[in-house]
Amino acid sequence: MIVIRHRLTPTQVLALGFAGIIVIGALLLTLPVATRSGESAGFLTALFTATSAVSVTGLVVVDTGTYWSTFGQIVIMLLIQVGGLGIMTMSTLFALILGRKITFKERLVMQEAFNLTSVGGIVRFAKYILIVSFLFESIGAAILSIRFLPQMGFKKAVYYGLFHSISAFNNAGFDLMGNFNSLTGYVSDWVVNLVIMGLIVFGGLGFYVLLDVYEQKHFARYTLHSKVVITMTLFLIVAGALLIFLFEYNNPKTLKPLSFSTKILASLFQSVTPRTAGFNTLSLPDMTTASKFLTIILMFIGASPAGTGGGIKTTTFGIILYTVLSVVKGEEQVVLFKRTIPRSTVYRAIAIAFISIFIVLSVTMVLSRTETSDFLTELYETTSAFGTVGLSLGLTPKLTAIGKIVIILTMYSGRVGPLTLALALAQRQKEKKSIMKYADEKVMVG
């Protein structure tokens, strides 16, 4: 076993690590004590829930608040924490608690997990991730607990505040409100909405960006990565909110009955949550087709690198967008904020987007054969799983056994796949480049 472990690449260690945590979580959720009824949950149900929690997705086949007991909910909450922060971050925490040194092999795996260029300062960065995560989650839990206190009582308010804070910061989308209602009962509650949105955004920005903002203070001093992440995040949130506001304004089942200020709040929330969070304050099945399709796009883009969210990432989308603009303007280089993007980075972004599209379309095609639903619902569910979002139009609880297995694999690939792909492409750059260059020849396109 030791020989096998040493032969594994850092990428394989990460992939197997996530798989191992999922299996352990599934086994714990099959225990009779994990359900309210006291009966053992089926292994497929437990595996689906554990995969959704570790991949911080939020799709569920049974209602979290009414099906699972307190023990089961705590297991889910811990799986969300491990999945959101990453296997190596949690391993670092335990190593620090036990006073054990981090080996060079572990530092290499951490480098791959955080997608950093060197192992220098890697442990310090892991400590920073832990501090920032627990700080944001604690603040969010405290505010939510105070807000829930009048209607729930002290113990339940604290428990609900902690659970939803961890779920929101890690972009998981699991809730305890019951009956698959998510946060629809708080559609007009500014405190709950703003806290949940804040946790989602900060968790999705990425720890590297948060550190850069903390150290540099001014936007002009930020790294190019941070500038792209922040601008693309703001653009997607604002554009998404405006479009949802327009699409749903006269919809009697969503925004129409609400006051003008609540319409704005709900539109903003529904623009933020597809950034891989999975909460909702409006009835998703009752939204217009335009809003559903817009949500699919936002879910596919997702959050940002080195954060708690999924998707192809804001930076990937931003690079592809600017590449298209450069081609339209006849420019030979892709330039962002007076910095040239290397061709290798452009190629990697295009490759990640293309393979992600291929996975989503392939899974949607499979679901179209195994499920009895319309195409948009199947595409919505698939994109939600791949982007580790958790938003659902109601198909997930009705999935067939094959459909559940397919979505399980999709959630896992969404959490590990894009990262693995990026790392594999990055590693190839380190290999010796070919000294041979073939002659150029044009091919007609478009």
Structural class: mainly alpha
Roughly how much helix do the residues carry, as a percent range? 55-70%
What is the percentage of strand-forming residues? under 5%
Measured between the Cα atoms of the first and last residue, the distance is 53 Å
Q: In angstroms, what is the radius of gyration?
A: 22 Å
SSE topology string: HHHHHHHHHHHHHHHEEHHH
Output the number of helix runs: 18
Number of strands: 2
The poorly predicted ranges are 1-5
Task: Give the overall shape.
Answer: globular
Tell me about the biggest sheet?
A: 2 strands, antiparallel
In spatial order, strands of the major sheet run 1-2
- Quickly count the domains: 1
The residue-averaged pLDDT reads 86
List the helices and strands and how they pair.
Layout: H1 2-7, H2 10-29, H3 43-54, H4 64-67, H5 70-85, H6 87-98, H7 104-114, H8 122-152, H9 154-169, H10 190-205, H11 207-216, H12 224-248, H13 260-272, H14 289-301, H15 314-328, E1 334-336, E2 339-341, H16 343-370, H17 375-386, H18 401-430
Antiparallel strand pairs: 1-2
Helix pairs in contact: 2-3, 2-5, 2-7, 2-18, 3-5, 3-18, 5-9, 6-8, 8-9, 8-10, 9-10, 10-13, 11-12, 12-13, 12-14, 12-15, 14-17, 15-16, 16-17, 16-18, 17-18
